[in-house]
């Protein structure tokens, strides 16, 4: 919930994260969270971008829904279990299977691998330029993140504040 002036607004604002090269990164190129303890470090080989658990929890604390939207075929159970080790619980997970069923469906036209606007997601975080390009065509906002960036958390929080203010202005009209 956000308070602007004397009006209170329920956020109902969703943010989604891609997995590969966004939340899951290589320790050779990015700062990462510590690996899970044994035996989980053997089951879950991926390493989380440093600060991801804190950012996700902070976004939820501020009233945002936090989703995973990935073209990966990792199961929802796998994703949930891995992030639970870091104290993170997502509101929703859209993986390749769910996307194909709910977004692509029986459409003859081949759709992009991600269309966050179909789920009313306000901001999608991704590393791929093509996803940002599709954002313009399919009506969704993308924050492109790829290289190591020590300020990535603050930049995303700031973008979410901007989105919240914009939605509040739209509600006032």
Description:
Helix content is 36%, strand content 14%. It is α/β, with parallel strands linked by helices and 173 residues long. It has a five-stranded parallel sheet with strand order 5-4-3-6-7, with helices on both faces. A two-stranded antiparallel ribbon has the order 1-2. The longest helix is centred in the C-terminal third of the chain and has 21 residues, at 152-172. The two termini are 19 Å apart.
Mean pLDDT: 90
Share of helix, binned? 25-40%
Q: Tell me about the biggest sheet?
A: 5 strands, parallel
Number of strands: 7
Low-confidence stretches: 1-10
What sequence of helices (H) and strands (E) makes up the elements?
EEEHHEHEHEHEH
> β content, as a range?
5-15%
Radius of gyration: 17 Å
């Amino acid at each position: 919930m956000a308070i602007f002036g004397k009006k209170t607004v329920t956020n109902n604002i969703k943010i989604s994260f891609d997995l590969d090269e966004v939340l899951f990164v290589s320790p050779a190129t990015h700062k990462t969270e510590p690996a899970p303890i044994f035996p989980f470090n053997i089951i879950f080989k991926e390493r989380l971008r440093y600060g991801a658990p804190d950012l996700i929890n902070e976004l939820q604390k501020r009233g945002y829904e936090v989703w995973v939207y990935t073209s990966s075929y990792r199961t929802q159970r796998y994703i949930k279990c891995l992030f639970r080790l870091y104290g993170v619980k997502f509101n929703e997970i859209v993986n390749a299977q769910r996307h194909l069923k709910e977004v692509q469906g029986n459409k003859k036209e081949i759709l992009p691998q991600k269309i966050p606007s179909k789920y009313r997601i306000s901001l999608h975080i991704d590393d791929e330029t093509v996803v940002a390009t599709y954002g313009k065509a399919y009506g969704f906002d993308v924050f492109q993140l790829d290289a190591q960036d020590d300020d990535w958390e603050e930049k995303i929080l700031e973008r979410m504040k901007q989105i919240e203010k914009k939605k509040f202005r739209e509600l006032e009209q």
